[in-house]
Amino acid sequence: MLVLSRKVGETIQIGSDIIIKVSSLSGGRVRIGIEAPRNVSIQRGELRQFIEPVAAPLQPTPACGDLNAQAS
Asked: Which residues form the signal peptide (predicted)?
Protein backbone atom coordinates (compact mmCIF):
# COMPACT_ATOMS: atom_id res chain seq x y z
CA MET A 1 0.00 0.00 0.00
CA LEU A 2 1.25 3.45 -0.92
CA VAL A 3 0.46 6.16 1.66
CA LEU A 4 0.79 9.79 0.59
CA SER A 5 0.25 13.13 2.29
CA ARG A 6 -1.55 15.76 0.21
CA LYS A 7 -2.77 19.29 0.86
CA VAL A 8 -6.07 20.77 -0.33
CA GLY A 9 -5.91 21.29 -4.08
CA GLU A 10 -3.12 18.75 -4.63
CA THR A 11 -3.68 15.68 -6.79
CA ILE A 12 -2.64 12.07 -7.18
CA GLN A 13 -2.57 10.49 -10.65
CA ILE A 14 -3.20 6.77 -11.19
CA GLY A 15 -2.18 5.52 -14.61
CA SER A 16 -2.71 7.96 -17.44
CA ASP A 17 -6.40 8.68 -16.96
CA ILE A 18 -7.40 8.69 -13.25
CA ILE A 19 -6.86 11.79 -11.09
CA ILE A 20 -7.73 12.10 -7.40
CA LYS A 21 -7.88 15.63 -5.97
CA VAL A 22 -8.14 16.63 -2.31
CA SER A 23 -11.06 19.09 -2.27
CA SER A 24 -11.31 19.96 1.42
CA LEU A 25 -10.44 18.98 4.97
CA SER A 26 -12.89 19.56 7.80
CA GLY A 27 -13.21 18.06 11.27
CA GLY A 28 -11.09 15.00 10.56
CA ARG A 29 -12.82 14.32 7.23
CA VAL A 30 -11.28 14.47 3.79
CA ARG A 31 -13.34 15.36 0.73
CA ILE A 32 -11.91 14.10 -2.56
CA GLY A 33 -12.81 14.40 -6.22
CA ILE A 34 -12.10 11.65 -8.72
CA GLU A 35 -11.73 12.12 -12.47
CA ALA A 36 -11.85 8.83 -14.37
CA PRO A 37 -13.20 7.43 -17.63
CA ARG A 38 -16.87 6.42 -17.56
CA ASN A 39 -15.97 2.74 -17.89
CA VAL A 40 -14.11 2.80 -14.54
CA SER A 41 -16.32 1.74 -11.64
CA ILE A 42 -15.89 3.90 -8.52
CA GLN A 43 -17.57 2.70 -5.31
CA ARG A 44 -17.30 3.46 -1.62
CA GLY A 45 -15.51 0.61 0.12
CA GLU A 46 -18.31 -0.09 2.60
CA LEU A 47 -20.81 -0.63 -0.24
CA ARG A 48 -18.74 -3.20 -2.16
CA GLN A 49 -20.14 -6.08 -0.08
CA PHE A 50 -23.67 -5.25 -1.29
CA ILE A 51 -22.85 -5.03 -5.00
CA GLU A 52 -22.84 -8.29 -6.94
CA PRO A 53 -19.72 -8.79 -9.03
CA VAL A 54 -20.36 -8.92 -12.76
CA ALA A 55 -19.33 -12.40 -13.89
CA ALA A 56 -20.17 -12.10 -17.59
CA PRO A 57 -21.89 -9.60 -19.87
CA LEU A 58 -25.65 -9.97 -20.06
CA GLN A 59 -26.98 -11.62 -23.22
CA PRO A 60 -30.00 -10.01 -24.89
CA THR A 61 -33.28 -11.91 -24.89
CA PRO A 62 -35.98 -11.68 -27.57
CA ALA A 63 -38.00 -9.42 -25.26
CA CYS A 64 -35.02 -7.04 -25.06
CA GLY A 65 -34.63 -6.67 -28.81
CA ASP A 66 -32.51 -9.60 -29.99
CA LEU A 67 -33.18 -9.23 -33.71
CA ASN A 68 -31.62 -12.61 -34.59
CA ALA A 69 -34.02 -14.47 -32.29
CA GLN A 70 -37.03 -12.57 -33.68
CA ALA A 71 -36.12 -13.39 -37.29
CA SER A 72 -36.11 -17.17 -36.61
From this structure: none
